[in-house]
Amino acid sequence: MAHAAQVGLQDATSPIMEELITFHDHALMIIFLICSLVLYALFLTLTTKLTNTNISDAQEMETVWTILPAIILVLIALPSLRILYMTDEVNDPSLTIKSIGHQWYWTYEYTDYGGLIFNSYMLPPLFLEPGDLRLLDVDNRVVLPIETPIRMMITSQDVLHSWAVPTLGLKTDAIPGRLNQTTFTATRPGVYYGQCSEICGANHSFMPIVLELIPLKIFEMGPVFTL
C-alpha cells in the first residue's frame, strides 16, 4: 500500500500492474528527454550571440521538428495500446466475484460458491485493533487465491462508484443498470487496499476495499471467509 512521502507507484501484485509501471517509466523517460532538449535550446537562446537572425528558410529543421514528434507519439502509443487490449482480455477465469456498490459500502457475491453474499463496511475508529488502518480496514475482507485468474463483475445499486485497487492495476466503474467486468491474477499473497474512486456522495471517502490474497491450497481447504 502507499506510504507517506511516496513518490513512485505502489509495488505491483499482478502482471497488468507490472506492465503499467514499465510503461510509466518508459513515458517518463521520453518526457525527461524532451524537457532536457527544450531547456538546452532555451539556454542556448539566452546565452549565445545570434549571428543568423536573417535566415527565413530552414527546410531541414522544419522537417526534423515535424517528423521527430510523430516518431515520439508512435513510441508512446504502441505500448499504450498493447496494455489497453491486455486489460480487456478475459482468459477463462477460474473464479467469479460480483461486487455491488452502495452508498456507502460494498456487497460481494461468490457466484461459484452457492451464492455466498456478504456486505463489507469500513471499520469505525472505535472498533480498530492494533495494526488496523484507519479509513482503510473493513469488517469483512474479500478472500481470494493467488496465481488464479479471477473475474470481477462490478455494478452499482444507486449512484456511480468505482472499484479500484492500485497495487493490482484495477479501476472499474460501477454503474447502475450496467455490469462491467475486469480480470486479474495476483502473483503474491498479502492484504491489499483500495477505495471507491468515483465521487459518490457525502461518505465517498468511507468505502474502502480490502483483498486478502492467500495460496490456492489454503483457499480450497475450507471456509476462509472472514465473516
Automatic annotation (TrEMBL):
GO terms of molecular function: copper ion binding; cytochrome-c oxidase activity; oxidoreductase activity
Q: Which UniProt keywords apply?
A: Copper, Electron transport, Magnesium, Membrane, Metal-binding, Mitochondrion, Mitochondrion inner membrane, Respiratory chain, Translocase, Transmembrane, Transmembrane helix, Transport
Q: Where does it sit, as one GO cellular component term?
A: mitochondrial inner membrane
> According to Swiss-Prot or TrEMBL, what is its membrane topology?
Multi-pass membrane protein
The Gene Ontology biological process terms listed for this entry are: electron transport chain
Q: Which family does it belong to?
A: Belongs to the cytochrome c oxidase subunit 2 family.
Cited PANTHER family: CYTOCHROME C OXIDASE SUBUNIT 2, CYTOCHROME C OXIDASE, SUBUNIT II
Q: State the name under which the record lists this protein.
A: Cytochrome c oxidase subunit 2
The species this protein was found in: Homo sapiens (Human)
